[in-house]
Amino acid sequence: MTLEAGQITVGTAATIIPETCIMPWRLEIHNDDNTDDLYVGGASVTTSTGMRVNKLERLSLELAPLDYVYVVSSKSGHNVSYIKFTRAC
After folding, report:
1. Predicted confidence band at 87 (pLDDT cuts at 50, 70, 90)?
2. Model confidence band, residue 89 (pLDDT cutoffs 50, 70, 90)
3. CA distance 77 to 49
4. Strand-pair category, 70-72 with 51-53
5. In what order do the strands lie in the sheet with 51-53?
6. What is the pLDDT of residues 13-47, one digit of tens each?
7. How many helices (H) and strands (E) does the chain have?
8. What pTM was estimated for this model as a whole?
């Protein structure tokens, strides 16, 4: 199994997590912020429509080939960490 880790800074516009795979894969997303929630979804995710990841918590997603994940926050400068788990890409 291959692990790839990364960090991004997001704001009030939906931001893609820059990972995908041609095989089924798993993505762990951690909300690094200690004051605000993070919202996860598709390209049109908003703070009203996304799945909430509470401050300092994480979310694990099982994804289909070539799926993309987007995140958004209610503020600028929101730090997010992630790990991509794959068998073969």
Report:
1. confident
2. low
3. 20
4. unpaired
5. 15-16, 70-72, 38-41, 51-53
6. 999 999 989 999 999 999 999 999 999 999 999 99
7. 0, 8
8. 0.92
And the tokens for 20? 């995908």
CB environment 40-79: b (16+ within 10 A), e (fewer): beeeebeeeebeebeeeeebeeebeeeeebbbbbeeeebe
Q: How far apart are CA 88 and CA 53, in angstroms?
A: 28
Instruction: List the strands of the sheet with 58-63, edge to edge.
Output: 2-10, 78-86, 25-31, 58-63
From 19, 38, 21, select the one nearest 30 (Cα to Cα). Answer: 38
Structure tokens at 71: 């995140």
